[in-house]
Specification:
single chain, alpha+beta, elongated
Length: 261
Amino acid sequence: MKSQTPRTSSSGGEDSRLVPKTEDLTMVPDQIAVDQKTEIIPEEFEFEIGEDTAELSDVSEVERVAYQHAITPDTFDSHGAVYHSQRSGKFLLSMHSNILYYTKMANLFINTYTYVESRGVCWITLQISSIMKGQKVPCLYKYGDWSPCTQSCWDGLNPLPKMFRSVNKSSVVQSRGGEEPLCPPDLLVQVDIAPCNTHLCPTPLSSYDFTSCYYKDAVKEKEGGCYKIRNVTLDNRLINIDTELVEDCSDKECDSVLDLI
């Protein structure tokens, strides 16, 4: 390899610019060193990522992004918040539009149903009215409720107890058609009468008189004694038992049996 000697300047001294010497290759590793596996860096030699480190090619893309996020958290968070708020606004707007749409559809369905139903009722009413116009209807009315009965039972002597009822004014329907007679003018003052509580009033047994005396034993006659019984009539009424039905006759009453014989 050629070497260059220092040049002499016009002033007779050596030129300060030196010609480059041959490159020293002693620092280039041999093939065996290149093929060896890379050793793990000890903990004491671990490095921290700084501002300049992010620009180096030895730092991975993930670490660089993490570093950028670490040094600018406020900017990243504000950008995410704006993006999230924009998405939330779009979602709320879409939900509001859907609610309005379904509300309008429900109102439309209800209004349509109400309209159809009202038209149907009107049609039925007109049909009934047209049918009723051609019919001949007599005077119609309805009685009210019966009044209480005048007595709780019949004593068998006075007239039977009665109850009364009159025509309900709101139920009167005049006849139409031309052939049926009109309602009588005194219809509202007419009174319907009917008997009630026709059963006989119960009477006490003591109110019935005794019959004449009879022998208890027809063979012994007076020696066997005599009895008398109350003369209960067969008038289909209730009797309150307040005394005895049969009683013994006295000796004097028993003597009267002989007179009857």
